[in-house]
Design goal:
81 residues; mainly alpha; two-stranded antiparallel sheet; 2 strands; 9% strand; elongated
């Protein structure tokens, strides 16, 4: 389903929704709009734009300094699991 179809279907849900549904959608929308969450960590916890930027910069520095393992090393580790 594309974005236009998704919006149309959501509008239909909202047009026919009861008060409980509307309050849930409103609360979720308000939280989403006021949030700087851009993703989630592996454990399911949210990550902010600022925290993600810091992680990306730290990872970039590690790679530039040679602090990483090769694909071959990863494949060897996987075989030992």
């Amino acid at each position: 389903m594309g974005i236009p179809e998704l919006k149309k279907e959501l509008h239909s849900y909202i047009d026919h929704a009861d008060e409980r549904f509307l309050k849930m959608v409103y609360a979720m929308s308000k939280e989403y709009k006021g949030s700087d969450i851009v993703g989630y960590k592996v454990d399911g916890s949210p990550i902010s734009k600022n925290a993600l930027s810091k992680r990306v910069l730290a990872a970039s520095k590690r790679v530039k300094s040679g602090d990483f393992i090769s694909e071959e090393e990863v494949e060897q580790e996987v075989q030992n699991w």
